[in-house]
Design goal:
alpha/beta, pyruvate-formate lyase- activating enzyme, eight-stranded mixed β-sheet, 34% helix, binds iron/sulfur cluster
């Protein structure tokens, strides 16, 4: 899975670096000055690297916690996001990371304590007001857990601040450490979902929808709060039947009171990024679908977008209260 490991010299003695290197004892690390030397190099081939990614262990020096866009949220007035990692084990057709970064290598920022300090500072500045912190914007929050120990580290921190909600966004069925811990009420495990046969074509390398539903069903039974993320909504033949069947399946299996929130997001790409995506995936049916430029974005036309959101919202309202439904049109 990992081709080679690179480590920034400054953190070679960091305890998290040492324990990660122990897991990859067969690889001799290569020491570098700054992750950007590799990661930001021009003319890299994202698609080739995706098959043989390197792992780069680095220290994040700024931008640890960032403001989420205005129309991005799941109920709280204050919303931030943070990225302890760039890139993802999976390879979804619509993933904007491939259009954003020139490299498919994994960058893991090991200085979690600095993220932690910044998160706590934001919480304190808000003096008890409700705030959500989104992880999993530049990666999958759970897929790399066995190597990163990210969730293991951050859950106890959030546990101390009940007014701050942590969203873990994932397609992973990797459930450690959640299965071994008592659930905390200010953490939502948010699964990205779409009809199974669409995911089979688009969510390369990610667990099937059936496996994801099984995983969320299990965590819900253990008492964790679950988020359902239908983002992006994918248009195509029989989409109404496919989404109806998906919702029915989920709510047959998952207790409604374990649902924290449901979000819908239209398929959307920044215009410039879209050009890169098409270059990287010239055969993608999704990217050659009925998309159009609207403002600064490439999306389905407004009619399709509205029809999909309205249809899905009306169906989901049969299962969960309207107050738990959100539409995310925001880009970061
Ligand atoms: S799971 Fe998310 S971050 Fe990972 S490749 Fe798919 S869209 Fe990108």
């Amino acid at each position: 899975m990992i081709n080679q490991i690179f480590v920034e010299k400054e953190i070679e003695n960091h305890h998290r670096v040492k324990s990660i290197l122990e897991r990859f004892a067969s690889l001799s690390p290569i020491y570098i000055d700054h992750y950007g030397e590799l990661f930001n190099k021009k003319n890299q081939n994202f698609r080739v690297q995706k098959s043989f990614p390197n792992l780069i262990l680095a220290k994040k020096n700024d931008g640890h916690v960032l403001q989420a866009p205005k129309n991005f949220g799941i109920g709280d007035a204050y919303n931030f996001y943070f990225s302890h990692m760039y890139n993802c084990l999976y390879d979804c057709d619509y993933c904007f990371l491939q259009g954003m970064y020139s490299s498919a290598d994994f960058v893991l920022f090991v200085n979690y304590e600095k993220f932690e300090d910044e998160i706590i500072e934001k919480i304190k500045q808000l003096e008890g007001r409700k705030v959500t912190f989104f992880s999993g914007y530049d990666c999958d929050s759970l897929a790399f857990e066995k190597i990163s120990g990210f969730v293991e580290h951050f859950l106890p921190i959030f546990e101390k601040f009940p007014n701050a909600l942590l969203e873990l966004r994932t397609k992973s069925i990797q459930q450690e450490p959640l299965v071994f811990k008592a659930p905390i009420q200010n953490c939502v495990i948010a699964y990205s979902l779409m009809p199974g046969n669409i995911a089979k074509q688009l969510d390369r390398k990610a667990p099937s929808i059936e496996k994801r539903i099984k995983a969320l069903e299990y965590l819900a039974k253990k008492g964790w709060q679950i988020g359902l993320r239908f983002d992006p909504l994918i248009y195509g033949k029989d989409w109404k039947v496919l989404y109806s069947d998906l919702f029915e399946d989920i709510f047959k299996r998952v207790a409604k009171d374990s649902i924290h929130s449901v979000t819908f997001g239209p398929l959307r790409f920044p215009k410039e990024m879209f050009k890169n995506l098409v270059k990287l995936n010239p055969e993608s049916k999704l990217l050659s679908g009925p998309l159009t430029i609207r403002g600064t974005k490439m999306t389905y036309n407004a009619e399709i977008e509205l029809e999909m959101i309205n249809f899905c919202e009306n169906l989901i309202k049969l299962y969960v209260p309207e107050a738990l439904l959100f539409t995310c049109r925001g880009d970061f």
